Amino acid sequence: MTAAQPNGRSERPASAVAILSAAAPPVLEVRDLKTQFFTDEGIVHAVDGVSFSVAAGETLGIVGESGSGKSVTALSLMRLLEEPSRITGGEIRFQGRDVMAMTPGELRALRGGGIAMVFQDPMTSLNPVLRIARQLVETMVVHGRYTADAAAERAVKLLGRMGITAPERAIHSYPHQFSGGMRQRVALAIGMSNDPALLLADEPTTALDVTIQAQILDLLRELNRDFGTAIVLISHDLGVIAGVCARVIVMYAGEVVEEGPAEALLSDPRHPYSWALINAVPRIDRGALEGKRLTTIEGAPPDPLAHAAGCRFAERCPFRIAKCVEHPPLAEVAPGRRARCWVTQAGRSLVGPRAEDALAAEAKAEAKPFDHGVEATLARGERLLEARGVVKHFPLPRAGLFGPTRVVRAVDGVDFDVAQGETVGLVGESGCGKSTLARVLVRIHRPDAGSIRLAGQEIAQSQPSAIRPLRRRMQMVFQDPYASLNPRMTVGQILGEPLVFHRITKGARETSAHVDELLNVVGLSPKAAQRYPHEFSGGQRQRISIARALAVRPDFIVADEPISALDVNIQAQIINLLIDLQERYGLAYLFIAHDLAVVRHISERIVVLYLGKVAEIAPAAALFESPLHPYTRHLISAVPIPDAAIESRRQHLQLAGEPPSAIDPPSGCRFRTRCPLAQPICTEVAPPLAEHRPGHFAACHFAGQF
Amino acid sequence: MTATAARPALAAASVPLPASRRRRWLRRYGLASLGAAIILAWILVALLAPLILPYLPDTVEVTKRLQPPEAAHWLGTDALGRDDLTRLLYGARISLSTGFIVVVVGAVFGTLLGGIAAYARGAVEELIMRATDLVLCFPPIILALAIAAALGIGTTNTIIAMLVVWWPKFARLARSLVLVQRSHEYVEAATVVGLTPARILLRHIIPNAIGPLVVLVTLDVGNAIITFAGLSFLGLGVVPPTPEWGSMVAEGRELVEQWWVAAFPGLAILTIVLGFNFLGDGIRDWLDPKARRR
Amino acid sequence: MLRYVVSRLGLSVVMALLATLVIFLIANTVPGDPVLAQLGDVAASNKEFVAAWRAKYGLDLPLWERYFVFLKGLVHGDLGISIASQRPVLDDIEQFAPATLELASVGFLLALVVGIPLGIIAAVRRDSWIDHLARLVSLVGVSSPTFWLAFIMLALFYGGLQVAPGPGRLDPIAFPPPTVTGLYLVDTALAGDWAAFRDALAHLILPSLVLAAATLGLLTRTTRASMLESMQQDYVRMARAKGLSEWRVILGHVLPNALIPVVTLGGLAYANLLTGAVMTETVFSWPGLGRYTFTSAAALDFPAIMGITLIVAVTYLVINLLIDISYALMDPRVVR
Predict the structure, then answer these.
(1) C268 touches chain B (CB under 8 A)
(2) What kind of architecture, by CATH, is found in domain B27-52+78-293?
(3) What integer pLDDT is reported at residue B24 of this predicted model?
(4) Surface of B (20-59) touching A: CB under 8 A
(5) Distance (Å) from the C-alpha of residue B238 to the closest C-alpha of chain C?
């Protein structure tokens, strides 16, 4: 039974689940599911013999990276696949009924009735031209359980239950009038509207901010507890899984490679891939204590067109043994736990991170040291970048010829410094202005006000031609690996262009040699120079971007969410690469991210932004151990930790409401609309960024008083 | 129910084989190649016309007027006894050349203006875009008509009239393409590297924006050919006795009995425009990143 | 929403005025001389006659004065006197406009009724025989020169098969119905003259089919492309996951999104039909605005040219305005 806890959450009732599952048939039973895509190049085995079951009221997590087949599995469950993909084998049973044998009518009754699904991007999964009311009501009416009027009433109640304020008004809105979090609540309302026995959630929070994610995950836990709906949660984020799911299965290359209770699996993985995933993820509750480098494995998931005959993970596995040329079955390695690995099935367990063994032969200290030509005019620790009062507003298109001019106050007065050789992390949620700030610092945009000094020289209002020589000292790496490289230039041309333009090399041969070195430094083969960007994976493209930034031998690199678009393992590889490069060349970084754990791992100091202003600046450890600003505190509390035991005991501080708009920010302190400490003074006076402790700044009238 | 009978969804037996490479290529580029072939054929024919034809387009032979298609005159003769096939093939020269000239010149001019508008922004952009809007206020035929009437008939004047009408759509497209490109991160990266705006435009923006422009140019040549022929049909285009498809149709307009006089020139227009449409569609599909499986 | 409409309206008025200026300039800075065109050689050699003639049509005033005369007339609803017909241009236009309106509307309706469903089916049954047929038909429709198509239709159905009536709105011996709207279908129905109604309808068929051909091609292609794009969106998958039937998904979810660009293009196509049916009207001897435009242009009848162009530009602007408004109504994301 559920035990009432101080924060209203239930302990995962493992024993209760065991009792339930013994009594009733499992809500979902999947046996040896095979789904294939028939492409022109051949057959892709997206799901290759996956079996699992979900008991009534249970929460199951499916973890895997892109290409693992987890999303395809979910779509297969309701037969939502379209040509050219097809289920080619296996059995799916929902409450004992064979899904594959259902007639179209029965299938339609199942979809949205017995099983409901929620997708990743709520912006695109809601129809933009239909009102919310219509999208909610139709799903209830179509299943015949409610009349139109009854459905309309219930829709309002559902929205309220999902946490949307003023649901009677909200229901007549259109999706684009809602924020991401609210849209996902609507999607959940749609999903729950027919009281399904099972809810499939495919990366439901990936597109959301951390604090909003925490709200949605809370909601999921509530739905499971209050309605007894079984939940299958698919995610690449172990922390999310740990916070919601009682059991976890890990997928790799279309197969289940490990299965077991969340707590046990996350603390003691029995498959090398799970082990790699868990150790590749930086944790917010651990600083960079155990050495800065993350455990990572080289390579990428195998080509789905042609899987290896033996263990599919073997080519990347640091624990590989001779037997791995045979394909291992999914067998029990401990009571209630199964893994597809010869090593662990033989009884061995995977001991703690063997960092030295596991590290790939990436370009390391063995490589020729790169000639850092430009004389360092600053000693380490001196101020490289100083930003004071930086302001950037964007005008919006006017509503009509006579409408008022509105501006988005993206960056509204930001001060901070970056010292030579230092890594400063910049965090904040969407709308805080961090991307705009990055672009202003690098002078892609011109700031409306404020001062920016690079190595002592003022660049805020200078002409582009005056800044051009300074460009060699400051470079940028962008978020989207697909859009940041010119698709019509070869890699060699992309890397050669800055070299030639800044006259770092002369002549084709020298340039080409230099390009090869750059590629080597970032871990790519020199053959890459002849190829085009689209021939590379996301992680490789990010390496090329980094190489481009390095080409001019900068002192300072602004990295704008450089890893957000990548898989966990590749993220770890790139983080390690960045750390390497910093050690080798004494680079300073401004590392912008929304992932607090990564930022904690890599940064020495951290700047927290909220709605265009700085909320807090502090050394990394101090920020996480004793934050001064209430926003920081909530932010840290919202980050999920990939440890089920800790997650179940954790108290998540709930941040109420939605982030206010940057067009019309609240007066005084911008955080006051959501702050539990807000007082009248917060409405009147904007708090200054004051140094409350040595090196620790916060912009709050009541800093630290919680 | 047996297991297999209850599984209509598992059609393992009817697994389609991966299509052969040739079939794939045909499916994707077959029509476009056909279009290119048609265009090339017409270009060849237009160039080689004097060499392969026994007649001249201007040879009047009143005794042989209005002959239906026969051995001596494959496409028949017109009201003045001139061989229709000859006039048709010579007409290809006019149509092709005027079509190309109007579209290429219009495209270059329009793209330049649109590119400048997008890069300069501010007042310059407003001015250029309002001018574009103004011209687009008028249906093309009317404006071209008015200008051609004002300038007088003749090939050159008609081309000028069409040019005035033709550049705005390229300006619009070029501007929106450049605007989109500017916000791409690799253009921002080029700015951060420190490249000059001219270099960014040349090396980064234009090569990536050129695709849709090429598609529009290809598709538009067909439009230009039709429009020029239409103006000639109305009596504004070429000066008689120059053989031109539109005016040939006009000559045969009343001759419902002697349908071949008007039918074949129009058919020629149809085939050549189809060719350009096939080719243009094919290029568009080739450029579409969603369609490419790379 | 109201503010949006008002501002767009204001913009349209400004554009219309600018349009008049442009046309005025074109018409008046021209190598050709209207005098010669109208009077013929004998009269033109008589200087006094020429001068008097010029004065009568205000052709002796300086450029900018003539423009103001024109603008002043506009405000009073006067578009000048046509040199060719000696009537107020407005009267000419009033006489010819209904014929064009009727023809263009029927043609557009045909294209709409066939083209959009064809595009929808082609998209839903992609790569089927009907898809290939639809694409072929639309390509041919878009690639055929209108004047030629008009001739072919006439030659085939009137000359060859003799199933359709000849050029013109009615049979040569028939009397037109009493003018209420100028639209023969409406007027004959109002007068209860069903024989004339059938006659008018029969004469409408061929030319409207010709007009419909190219528009049909455009509508089918656009609808198909837009449907295909919308069908790939995530909300379609979501709709299926809710248990909606396939047709409900297509009609209820995909179509409202897919039709938005179709409305825009379709509106423009209608505007083009209304204002540019020159070819068809010429071949079918249809007494409409298109033919009037052509004859005025050939005769260098400046008042007529300016009047027509103004009407045309205004029509275009009005339809563009309606398109913008309907776009804003259909797509809630537009800033209103």
Answers:
(1) no
(2) Orthogonal Bundle (1.10)
(3) 72
(4) 24
(5) 14
Sequence ranges of the domains in chain B: 27-52+78-293
Structural domain that includes position A502: 484-553
Q: Which residue of A has its CA nearest to C2?
A: A400
- Residue A87 in contact with partner chain B when CB distance is under 8 A: yes
Task: Look at residues A430, A386, A543, A570 and name the one whose alpha carbon lies nearest to residue A477.
Answer: A543
List, in order, residues 6 or more apart from A613 with CB less than 8 Å away: A412, A413, A414, A670, A686, A699
Strands A474-477, A255-261: pairing is: unpaired
Question: What global pTM score does this model have?
Answer: 0.83
Contacts of B143 in chain C (CB under 8 A): 309
pLDDT band at residue A377 under the 50/70/90 scheme = very low
- The domain boundary, picked from A139, A164, A193, lies at A193
- How far CA B193 is from CA of A376, A419, A523, in Å, comes to 19, 22, 22
**Complex prediction ipTM:** 0.81
C-alpha–C-alpha distance, residues C150 and A332, integer Å: 79
Farthest CA pair distance, chain B:
84
Q: Are strands A230-235 and A198-202 parallel, antiparallel or unpaired?
A: parallel
pLDDT tens by residue, A495-520: 999 999 998 888 999 999 999 999 99
Q: Which of B234, B263, B277 sits opposite C142 (nearest CB)?
A: B277
Instruction: Report which residue type is found at B101.
Output: I
Chain C residues whose beta carbon lies within 8 Å of the beta carbon of residue B150: 26-27, 30-32, 300
Q: How far apart are CA B64 and CA B86, in angstroms?
A: 15
Whether residue A602 sits in one domain with residue A514: no
Contacts of B185 in chain A (CB under 8 A): 478-480, 483-484
Q: State the smallest CA–CA distance between residue C214 and chain A in angstroms.
A: 30
Residue A227 lies in a domain: no
A38/B188 CB distance under 8 A: no
What digits encode the pLDDT tens for the residues A335-370?
889 999 888 888 777 765 444 443 433 333 333 334
- The verdict on A524 and A387 lying in the same domain is no
- Helix C89-124 and helix C302-330: axis angle, to 10°? 40
A365 touches chain C (CB under 8 A): no
Order of strands, edge to edge, in the sheet holding A42-54? A42-54, A28-39, A85-94, A97-98
Q: Is A491 in the same domain as A571?
A: no
Check if A143 contacts C (Cβ < 8 Å).
Answer: yes
- List the end-to-end C-alpha distance of chain A, in Å, as a whole number: 34
The CA distances from residue C272 to B80, C290, C293, in Å, are 36, 11, 14
In total, how many domains does chain A have? 3
Q: Which amino acid makes up residue C265?
A: L
**Do B229 and C147 make contact, defined as CB atoms within 8 angstroms?**
yes
pLDDT (tens, 9 = 90+) of chain B, 294 residues, equals 344 344 444 544 455 555 677 777 777 788 888 999 999 999 998 888 778 777 777 777 777 777 777 777 777 777 777 787 888 888 888 889 999 999 999 999 998 888 888 877 778 888 888 888 888 877 777 777 777 767 777 788 888 888 988 899 899 888 888 888 888 899 999 999 999 888 888 888 888 888 888 999 999 999 899 989 988 888 777 777 788 888 888 888 777 777 788 888 889 999 999 999 999 988 888 877 554 433
Which residue in the set B1, B6, B24 is minimally distant from A40, CB to CB? B24
CB contacts, 8 Å: A130 with chain C: 252-253, 256
Is residue A465 domain-shared with residue A542, that is, in the same domain?
no
Q: Kindly state the tokens that stand for C153.
A: 């239709």
Partners of chain A (3+ Cβ pairs below 8 A): B, C
CB burial of residue C173 (10 Å; 0-12, 13-18, 19+): exposed
